[in-house]
Amino acid sequence: MTLFIFIVAVILIGYYTIKLKRRNRENFSNAINQWLNEMPDNTPAFPTAQPVQQPAPVPAQPEQPASPYIPPEDMPLDTAIVPPAADFAEEMELMLYAAKKYPDLFRLELYKPKNIIEIAEFQRRTGIQFTQELQQFYHFTDGLSANIGSIFMYPLDLVERESHNEYEWGNEKDWTVIGDWIGDGEIIVFDRRTNSILTDDHGDITDYGTFTELLDYAMDLFLKGEVEDERIDAFFKDKE
Fold first, then answer.
1. How far apart are CA 127 and CA 120, in angstroms?
2. Using one digit for the tens of pLDDT, what is the confidence trace for 174-227?
3. For the whole model, what pTM was predicted?
4. CATH number for the segment(s) 74-239
């Protein structure tokens, strides 16, 4: 009998507990619906999540352009003094003579020379060790431009710039481009391994040995026989 009463009590307690939960749930649901109905139409029922504010993208920094190349200052031909002991002294004196006497035929541009300290600093910066002949040349003029051979010997600043360029031909490891001539892409090269002056015409390489020999060849092609002049004729006669 006692067990029966206990079971009936458990059943009744469970029944009323379930009923109470259902009533509470209905009351809660009714309260929510009433709250939703009372809210303004333009107000969201539940607060919407705010988008995370992303930091503004940092604009890409434009690539810094290389500083513009500034050509060296011209040196008037009348003030040019060729070092007498230079290997190229005779050749350069004749080019100066021809350019000053026949300016309509022969064009020659010389540039303000580099001093010994500037040449040494260039060599330290670049690791390019010029021969004594080339050091004498840049101490006389910082490059040259002439229609005798259409030769353009680069100023040292341009030599340094060109040392970072890549070429499709030639020995880039041991070569330093110091000029061009003929006007068709043929470059003048200083071979640091052999200390020779070369020209490279798109893979066709000629070894002149020295800068002086290159000048001799250019003058033989573009100066010899161009005018009737005793001094010019005597120079080439001595070369025979």
1. 10
2. 899 999 998 788 999 999 999 999 999 988 999 999 999 999 999 999 999 999
3. 0.70
4. 3.40.1580.10
